[in-house]
Amino acid sequence: MSLLQVQDVSVRFGGIVALDGLSFDIEDGQICGLIGPIGAGKTTMFNVVSRIYQPTSGQVMFRGQNLIDAPAHGIARLGIARTFQNLALFPTMSLLENVMVGAHSQGKVGFARAVLRIGASKENNATREFAGELLHQLGLGPLMFRPAMGLPFGTLKRLEIARALAARPTFLLMDEPASGLTHGEVDELGDTIVAIRDQFDLTVLLVEHHMSMVMGISDKVVAMEFGRKIAEGTPAQVQADERVIAAYLGTTE
Predict the structure, then answer these.
(1) Where are the beta strands (DSSP E) in 14-151?
(2) Which of 42, 170, 208, 251 could cross-link 79 (Cys pair, CB 3.0–4.6 Å)?
């Protein structure tokens, strides 16, 4: 059984069809790139999986469980985390504190005991240690006590990845992680995504416009246009597909 099975998912906003019968699978351990022109429905699909949007029809199965039945706040507990195209960090908090926030979903103390500081010290210390390890692994260790405010954009992108990893996910959704990065930073990011996939035993769904990175690191690519799937396969297969070429480059016919 595939880790994720998107089955005939449609999303409509009034008269606008954002997704139209979309289906694809992702196997355990794969990096799957989700590509398409602006308005193809990629972010909508992301928001369905992360339970921000409710589909009009269809289902999304994760390890045999229908995610459509799960509340948005329960996604992290299932082992799903995501990054955002627009950074959603706490600028006045340190890098270490930002990453520790990402681990809250895995806490066992509970809200009331945390407020009353009953049995929370041991868990907090363990979370701090794990967050520090993540920052070191992503090359941010020397900056862990610096506030996020004012740091370079590429550094903040890595910080958001560290915060997502703090939730100890098995499935990571990455929404435009290369957006705003220089060419050198994009190449470094691609290496980082492959490294964390291998190190943390992750499966990754990647939405990205930077085609060279997607094609260079993905095991599988799903191409979309106008809310529909137009191609699915290896990077080489998708790059050679006439429908994908027409969607990106246009056609004279």
Answers:
(1) 16-26, 31-35, 57-62, 65-66, 80-82
(2) 170
Q: Do the domain assignments include residue 96?
A: no
pTM of the full predicted structure?
A: 0.88
Report the domain count for the chain: 1
For residues 247 and 223, the answer to whether their CB atoms sit within 8 Å is yes
119 or 163: which carries more pLDDT confidence?
163
For 200, the domain range is 4-79+169-249
Q: Is residue 131 part of a domain?
A: no
Burial class (CB in 10 A: 0-12, 13-18, 19+), 232: middle
Average pLDDT over residues 40-64: 93
Lookup: tokens for 24: 């694809």
12: left (phi over 0), alpha (psi -120 to 50) or beta: beta
- Give Cβ neighbours of residue 26 (< 8 Å, ≥ 6 apart): 2, 3, 4, 32, 203, 205, 220
- In DSSP notation, 106-117 reads G--S-HHHHHTT
What is the C-alpha to C-alpha distance for residues 156 and 91, in angstroms, rounded to an integer?
Answer: 10
Q: End-to-end CA distance of the chain, in Å? A: 41
Pairing mode, strands 171-175 and 80-82 = parallel
pLDDT digits (tens, 9 = 90+) for 172-214: 999 999 988 888 899 999 999 999 999 999 999 999 989 999 9
How far apart (Å, rounded) are the C-alpha atoms in residues 164 and 158?
10
